[in-house]
Amino acid sequence: MNIVLIGMRGSGKTTVGRRLARKLDRELVEMDELISKRAGLAIPEIVEKYGWEKFRDIEEQVTDEVAERDNIVNAAGGGVVTREQNIQELKKNGILVWLKVGLNTLLERLGEDSKRPLLAGRTQREDMEITLDERKALYQKAADLAIDTEDKTPEEIAEAIIKSLKKICCLIGDPVEHSLSPLIHNAGYQALGINYVYVPFRVRDIKRAIEGIRGLGIRGASITMPHKARAIEYVDEIDRLAIETGAVNTIVNNDGILTGYNTDYHGALKALEEATSLEGKRAVLVGSGGAATAIALGLKMGGAKLVILNRTEEKAKRLAEMFDAEDSGGLKKLDEVSSADILINATPVGMWPKTNESLIPKSLLHNRLVVFDTVYNPKETKLLAEARERGCAVVYGYKMFLYQAATQFELFTGHQAPLKVMESVLTQALEGEKDATHFDRR
Ligand code: NAP
After folding, report:
1. pTM of the model
2. 78-90 tens-digit pLDDT
3. What stretch of H or E contains 199?
4. What spacing in Å lies between the alpha carbon of 290 and ligand 1's midpoint?
């Protein structure tokens, strides 16, 4: 997990970066230095000899390489934000911190710096004024954090960054590009006017990512595929529900002590309990992976009688033993549904793009059944559409997603999650994107 300092030349990226790197015990990487090394020329000479476009091309190559590194402080070049591709790369594993500064301060700081290249035919003032004007919106759009640097010493700016990191929450998974978690968490923060920020990181090495959370003092993380099971090894304390489900989907950092939770359990239970009571009900759970495990625990705690069915029969049997289920087996036993009160699909069957699939024959669905599909893209799966046609009560998968995120929100911020706002942005995104895209992960 990297810290990437962005901002105008003269905004103090290197000076602040040096202090930040020392405080966080990280290496400082200066992108301009790497560009210079690669070209074998100083920056003004590259621009003079080859022009700005060529300079930007070299910068793009260097950006790709630096973005692959981990646990560094990166003082990026002032114009790195002019190419969207650079931002996308840096964001995959980096928190972008914009060092904000006004024109006069910039000019004061750059007064002695005559070596920096000016854009053709401009004075230093004209050059800075025009560039600052053009870049402001780009920095703002790219930045996860914006730090006002006017009237602050580099030491104070570094401290301000470290303090802001305590309000960063993140998503850790691979892939994360289509995740809706940033959308709903950030909408919640904005609705409450609290200065938290939620950023996604594509993470291959979960151990290093968790070290990064600890080292940077990041407030918390949502953990998604494929890291939920392994995350449990690297936290300091584990909530009882996470132990029982064998998976951590949430990490909270309290002054360097990392605690792992599983909020899928809460999400599934709350979604189900909105539609039905559980005590004494017969529930057929289809699937035996991570989601099924959290749901099985919820059903058991709620007092339901469990039947667990799975494509791979042994896994169903293992889960049935863990949660003392009444029965278990392969999918050939699906006719158990005809005598059940609750049916849950905890497999990806029906998910975009194979939306025309369902594991459960329509003929087994009866009007006393509550049907919960954990798949939430599309919102209305084939299973849920058929269940409604047959007069069943239905529970949408997006509700589980919403409620598990709300529990995370509360663990991260200590504030009650603004559910209406979070639900509204979530359902709008699912409706708006249903024909175009295919996010399924958190
Ligand atoms: P997982 O650990 O990989 O487990 C997948 C389960 O689905 C396994 O039991 C697997 O059976 C079964 N399965 C996969 N493909 C199948 C197929 N073609 N036919 C029959 N069974 C099949 O995944 P997970 O984390 O449990 O997630 C499962 C699904 O739950 C996800 O795809 C997602 O849609 C949903 N989910 C929703 C939420 C939410 O908040 N709404 C949260 C988590 C998950 P085998 O054991 O035979 O491989």
Report:
1. 0.90
2. 999 999 999 999 9
3. strand 197-202
4. 7
